Structures are given as C-alpha cells and as structure tokens.
C-alpha cells in the first residue's frame, strides 16, 4: 500500500476531526433544538443573526439560507450593533447570536438591548455556562472536542458544526412552512415577459 503524503494525511485528519464534530451534534440534538425551531416558526417579524469574525461569516450564510427557504432573515454585524444598527431589531423579531466562547465582547454588548425589547434570543455557543448561553431563551451547543487547526486556534470544526446546525434549522423550517419549488421560483430572477416574447420572435433573414 502506497504511503500517504504529509499533505494528504493533514487533509484526512482535518476531515475526520470535522466529521467527529458533526457526529457530536447529532448525539446532542434534543428538545432545545425543537424549541428553537418553534420560536423561529412562530416569529411574526424577521430572524436577526448576529455575530462577528468567523462566526459572523457563518451567520451570514445561514441568514441567506433562511431567506431563500421561506424565513425572512438579516445579518447584524455585532461590531456595528452598538453604533445604531441595533435599531434593526423590532419586538416581532427573533435574534440568533453566534459566539463559540459565549463571551465575545461585541455580542455581549447586545444582550441588554435584546432583553429590554423582550425578543427571544437563541444562542449558538460551545460553552453552555457562558454569559451568552445563560442569557438566552434557548441555547444550542456547537461544542467540538477539538478544532482541525493544528494550533487549536482557527475555527474549523466548530464553524462547520455551526453551519450544519444552521442548515438543520433552515430545513426544519422549510418543511414546517410547506415551502415548495413554486415558492422558491418566486425568489429568483427570471426573464421578463418582454424578454421571453423577444426571444420567441423569429429573426429576420
């Protein structure tokens, strides 16, 4: 058997670590997840997803997935939130806040405002005892045993777990809303009637 190169060994280890993180998510799925889905389904406004850094980037992708599958959602950059952008949150909304440590300063500064408005807060963290997790209406754990980064610093397995859990929320909501292909078609740009009639007009020889 041919010996695997160091590069392939690193790639294999990375994938194995990230798969293990996803398997951990599966084992932890419980009523808290169902409660989060029910809160989002009952939301009469929009879903606000807040984060910063890598967590913020993952939050943006989840917001896009929710929006394109029947759940209106917007991303709120936690760093900009205390400079007037908190005004995007209304009493009809639900907030999902992302922070693996559950102690990110920019996210922590949002908690008081969210509680003052009285909107539900869903926290995605890797630390159930963190400030954010304890302040949340619902806490969803994205804890992983280890990151794929050999330095243990760059979010890798944890960001993959966060993205996957966000996708799971979106797909559950899609089914609850009975979102179908026809609904999806309405959210995408198609040729206008004028363009279609033009394309059907025989060209002159």
Could you report the average pLDDT, rounded to the nearest whole number?
90
Task: Assign the structural class, choosing from mainly alpha, mainly beta, alpha/beta, alpha+beta, or little secondary structure.
Answer: alpha/beta
Largest sheet: 5 strands, parallel
Radius of gyration: 21 Å
Low-confidence stretches: none
Order of helices and strands: HHEHEHEHEHEHHH
Helicity, in percent? 40-55%
Instruction: For the record, give the distance between the C-alpha atoms at the N and C termini, rounded to a whole number.
Output: 65 Å
The backbone outline, from C-alpha atoms, is globular
List how many beta strands DSSP finds.
5
Description:
With 205 residues, the chain is α/β, with parallel strands linked by helices. The protein contains nine helices and five strands, in the order H-H-E-H-E-H-E-H-E-H-E-H-H-H. The protein has a five-stranded parallel sheet with strand order 2-1-3-4-5, with helices on both faces. Helix 6 links the parallel strand 4 and strand 5. The longest helix has 23 residues. The radius of gyration is 21 Å and the shape is globular. The mean pLDDT is 90.
